[in-house]
Amino acid sequence: MNKAPVYETMFDRSEYDKANRQLQLVERELSRDAVSVLAREAVRRLAHKMPRTARKEDLPSPANIQALCEALLSKQDAAADKYILSERRDGVPVDVIYLSYVAGAARRLGTMWDEDEISFVDVTLACGKLYRIIRGLRHVIAPGIQAERDDWPAMFALVPGETHTLGIEIATDIFRREGWDVDMMVGLDHDMLVDQSDRRNYSAIVLVANSDDRLAALTRLVLAIRISHPLAQLVVAGNILDHHPDIAALVGADATIKDIGTAVKALREVIEVA
Fold this sequence. Notes:
α1 runs antiparallel to α6, α2 packs parallel to α10 and α5 packs antiparallel against α6. Helix content is 57%, strand content 11%. A five-stranded parallel beta sheet has the order 2-1-3-4-5, sandwiched between helices. The protein folds into two domains: 139 residues, no CATH class; 124 residues, Cobalamin-binding domain (Rossmann fold), CATH 3.40.50. The protein contains 13 helices and five strands. The protein is globular. The chain is of the alpha/beta class.
């Protein structure tokens, strides 16, 4: 049996499907305002992802961006996927598709939203499709995104708005005693935390949340970090697990850590199976 062409197999189907399921959960579980914030976050983060070394002749034309936006806004769920595969067949490098095409479409969607050319529903669906696509392409594009960063085992971060630092301080101390080189981030707002996470190529990023009212902030943070760290294992810890047993699927994390006593073993297993 002949193997499928590379452009037909470039999507990581497992990640693509996870993102699709997550978006369905988000629309069901979060408020309209929270979903709107997520859409804005996706537009903002994706719009600034441009390749540093792309050839001018590979960059998309305004017509290309318009065609992709039309596909994203189409009622046909897979129209954007098909458009991207078509561009890949025509020889457009996958990093240019991921960065230039996706970034250009995100900027265009943001402008259309700001100018009331498309509705809230339109833009959330379109951004969801873009996010699903980049999750599916993560293994292809990750090396280019991470090339200029230092390798680092883990980052532990308190979700913005959380004030209880004792748990994350204890966890960080335990991991450091076990020989892990861990960066700990507390007291940072959303943008500062994402910026700090972008400085290194982390194998794992553990996000700690305790309060149920931090769910939307946690979901937004995972989405933003996913775009910067396609291959990092994103792990949720803290008392929020008591309120949402299915939180990994809802926020788009790879795993959860429930027990501080077994945290080192659990995180090591998460990284090793990645």
